[in-house]
Design brief:
- Keywords: Isomerase, Repeat, Rotamase, TPR repeat.
- The protein is an alpha+beta fold and 616 residues long.
- α8 runs antiparallel to α9 and α9 runs antiparallel to α10.
- The radius of gyration is 41 Å and the shape is elongated.
Length: 616
């Protein structure tokens, strides 16, 4: 073994038992070979073990730790210990047993190397004796008068407690010391709502701010009081308690803050000490792609499965208006369950979208804007009349659900039937003017027949292809009215990949191109339509609109370029005038004695004049 090898011994290393043979049991004290002994033996009371492979540090456990979590402190953590230090002859040279415990930061050189390496192997409540060789203690110099030079030392250490210290922002701006470990493993996200208790003080202990007895709630990304809060809570677990040291840039800045209401003033460039507890937090999730429907989870669900389209869900819910009035309350009694089939339009769209994101047992509060509710219609519900354009709030519990077959589990005829059902639902919504939701139905239907390879050749494949084109054309018609022109181009182009002379696809793509001012492409599509159907009235009207746009566009371009050329002419005229003015200001050349070479007054250079043409 390398005498200078100071690596910590791991269970992969063969560990030497330094007990006398008379204290060993041949049956139970096997060394474990090259793989080392079971980890339990590393913690056996009364057994001296090498912690470093070079023998510079050994440990004998006197008492096991009391903490149920088998964790040990790490470098940078703040530890508190009682200890007694003795010389080889048993002389005590230092002890805290009759005074306050000793607190230090582990692994940063505040104590001897033997302590830094030894204490990080301990657990809370553990007591152990460490034998530290001189190179890991005070070396050849010793520490007179108590510790002679080149002396091995014994330390009886009890780890009373330890706090993890973490650099939250990795720039020293917010240092976090964990006073009480939190539960679970999850931490809040930017969009989540957290509830905290806190006290904010200056370094001298002056109280600046304190939360109410029932705590405060805030959205993480919006923060609270000062920037440190939103950074700190994202690193915390539920019920975790910490102490923060906050530098001015994460507090109230170099300018501080004047007294505000019941809160005290913050001096210039002040460092803050914050006691912070994360009491609880609710996940906030975006339900719809446009981020208009958002749910707050108040009780987490089971497992990971969620309903799919066509699932039958059993729920209970309470619906309220913005003023708190309850307009609907269903399923709250066990004998009156509410069963809903997702994607069958049995509840408002925003609630249906939310149900598709929930797990069994989940409870959430969802806020639904008018466009995902009853829109601009009045609606008489069970308990109240809902005014037009009302924002709705539902508290919903997902009791159970039975999933429908996913699309990939359906055979060809089943896929065609599912797509046809979505087409019919979309048509009903289109007739009612609910274009956005009609487009969604067409889109969902199109997914069932997107890939033709799974359908049998012949009528089945032809039916799937025809349905696919119809769904994309219908969705394009909705998107056109919703001014989603790039999507219209994409949808109609996919239809034209199947049928290059589909007149509806060419016409709707031309309309989209025209709206996007791609006038040349629009003209090309309209030309194909009119060549195929010269009497197509809609195409003729669209051609007239396109012609007007082209004329207006040319006029605009002519005006734009005309203005540009006019500006260029003006600039040239201005530059010419300035040049003429500069020549006019030159001094008159007097009668020349030698016309071939003159010195112009006011200039420090020679001007050569053509001898035959003095004006050149």
């Amino acid at each position: 073994m390398d005498p200078d090898d100071e690596r910590l011994v791991t269970k992969e290393d063969k560990i030497e038992d330094v007990r006398p043979k008379s204290f060993r049991c041949e049956m139970h004290d096997k060394s474990g070979g090259e793989d080392g002994p079971p980890e339990l033996k590393m913690k056996e009371v009364g057994v001296e073990r090498k912690l470093l492979k070079n023998g510079g540090l050994t440990k004998t456990v006197v008492k096991h730790g009391t903490c149920k979590h088998p964790k040990s402190p790490l470098s940078g953590d703040e530890v508190t210990v009682h200890y007694t230090g003795t010389l080889p002859d048993g002389t005590v040279f230092d002890s805290t047993r009759d005074k306050e415990p000793f607190t230090f930061k582990l692994g940063v050189g505040q104590v001897i190397r033997g302590w830094d390496k030894g204490v990080k192997t301990m657990r809370k409540g553990e007591q152990a004796v460490f034998t530290v060789q001189p190179q890991y203690a005070y070396g050849k110099a010793g520490q007179p008068p108590g510790i002679p030079p080149d002396t091995p030392l014994r330390f009886d250490i009890e780890l009373l407690s330890w706090c993890s210290v973490k650099d939250v922002c990795r720039d020293g701006g917010v240092m976090k010391k964990i006073v009480r470990e939190g539960k679970s493993w999850e931490t809040p996200k930017d969009s989540d709502e957290v509830k905290v208790n806190y006290e904010v003080k200056l370094e001298d202990g002056t109280l600046i701010s304190k939360s109410p007895d029932d705590g405060v709630k805030f959205i993480v990304e919006e923060g609270w009081l000062c920037p440190a809060f939103k950074h700190a809570v994202k690193s915390m677990k539920i019920e975790e308690v910490v102490v923060l040291m906050v530098q001015p840039e994460y507090g109230f800045g170099i300018d501080g803050r004047e007294a505000k209401d019941s809160e005290g003033p913050v001096p210039l460039n002040a460092t803050l000490i914050v006691d912070l507890e994360l009491v609880s937090w609710n996940s906030v999730e975006i339900v719809t792609d446009d981020k208009k429907v958002i749910k707050k989870i108040t009780k987490k669900g089971e497992s990971y499965e969620k309903p799919n389209g066509g699932s039958t869900v059993t729920i209970k819910y309470v619906g309220t208006l913005s003023d708190g009035a309850i307009f609907e309350k269903r399923g709250l009694h066990p004998e009156d369950p509410v069963t809903v089939t997702i994607d069958d339009d049995q509840v408002v769209p925003g609630l249906e979208e939310t149900l598709a994101t929930m797990k069994k047992g989940e409870v959430c509060i969802v806020m639904i804007p008018p466009e995902y509710g009853f829109e601009n219609e009045e609606k008489q519900c069970h308990l109240a009349l809902v005014p037009a354009n009302s924002t709705l709030t539902y508290e919903v519990e997902m009791i159970s659900f039975v999933k429908a077959k996913d699309s990939w589990d359906l055979d060809g005829p089943q896929k065609i039937a599912a797509a046809a059902k979505k087409k019919d639902q979309g048509n009903d919504l289109f007739k009612k003017g609910k274009l956005f939701f009609a487009a969604r139905k067409y889109e969902k239907g199109g997914r069932h027949v997107e890939y033709e390879s799974i359908f049998a050749d012949g009528d089945e494949k032809n039916d799937a292809r025809s349905l696919k084109m119809t769904l994309k054309l219908n969705e394009a018609a909705c998107r056109l009215k919703l001014n989603s022109f790039p999507e219209v181009v994409d949808l109609t182009s996919k239809v034209l990949e199947i049928d290059s002379m589909n007149l509806k696809a060419l016409f709707r793509r031309a309309q989209a191109y025209s709206a996007m001012m791609d006038l040349e492409l629009a003209e090309q599509d309209l030309k194909k339509v009119l060549e195929s159907d010269p009497n197509n009235r809609d195409a003729k009207l669209e051609q007239k609109k396109l012609n007007k746009k082209q004329v207006a566009h040319r006029k605009t371009e002519a005006k734009l370029y005309g203005n540009m050329f006019a500006r260029l002419i003006k600039m040239e005229e201005k530059e010419s005038k300035q040049a003429d003015k500069g020549l006019a200001n030159l001094p008159q050349v007097p009668a020349l004695i030698n016309p071939a070479e003159v010195s112009v007054q006011g200039y420090n250079q020679r001007v050569t004049v053509c001898p035959s043409h003095a004006g050149c």
